[in-house]
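Aggregate trends can hide what the representation actually does to any particular protein. For completeness, the protein is quoted in full, as a sequence line and a line of structure tokens.
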Amino acid sequence: MSYEYARIPLNQGLNLIVGPNGAGKSSVLLAISVAFGQAYTERSRKLSDLIRRGKEIARVSLIFDNRARDGKRPIPYSKADTFMLSRYLRKDGSYWYEADYKEIDKSEVVRLLREFGINPDNLLIIMHQGMIEELGAISQEQRLVMVEEAVGFREYRERILSAEADLNNMVSEEGSLVQLIDNANQTIEYWKQIYDRYLEKKRLQEHRVLLEREHLWAQEGKLTRSLASITERLGGKRESLADLGEQQKKAGTEAEEYRKSECVLAGERVARESVLWLVVAVLAAALVALARRGRRTIAQRRPTATRMDAASSSAIATAKEWPTSRCRKSGACDPMRTCWSS
């Protein structure tokens, strides 16, 4: 029931295929539906049953006019003026699709046909024999959907519904974006305050560093002035100390001269006292001599003469030693100097 090879051109507009029963009119429509991706038809539940008897493989190809119209091609990803869609069937039930001799999967075929508004399962687009009753059995809503899909309104309805859903999503997203913008503004305001405080802190830190430098320079000036004052005072103290040293030397010299003069005066005083004691000793010696002269005459009458002689000798010895001991005790003269002695 399939052609071994047939090439059927379809022109723009309405195409009619006429012929007696068994001529293969339905086979043309069946081939188109198989190429569009139908899994089964009214002729057979298995696509492998459509393969010509004695053959292992069958092929159905649809060639589309892909010439540019108004600067655009109907199938934009194909640069050729014709686009060939083929479906291969095997006896084992496997099949595959090719587009311009390149293998593709069924999802790409469905997407391509959807761009053209073609649904091979729509009874108003492809209706095989014996499907009139099936069309009458479906509900009005389903028939309306089929009609809209057949005339191309379904795509517009889907676009409108999709646009409405997108609009609702955009409104919802707008609300979310407004909330996000408010949150972002609050966050920006918060971080603006943080940044302003950071700038103020940075300015205060720089001002603090400047003040610390000025304070250090002020302390340096103050210390410099204090050092100059201390240096000046130290110079004055040094001059005063030098004057005191000179005065001390002068006082030492004067003290030495005074000590020397004191020693001289002490020596003179000791000399006078020694002369005085010498006179006393001479007088005592004279008295002793006189006593000795009369001692012989009065010895017998006065036994105490011996004691008197001893007393006179003791007085003379005392008179000789007193100036020397007096000079040593007074310390008025230099210890190296020889004091006056009788």
Summary: The longest strand covers residues 57-65. The helical segments are 25-36, 106-115, 132-137, 140-151, 153-298, 305-330.
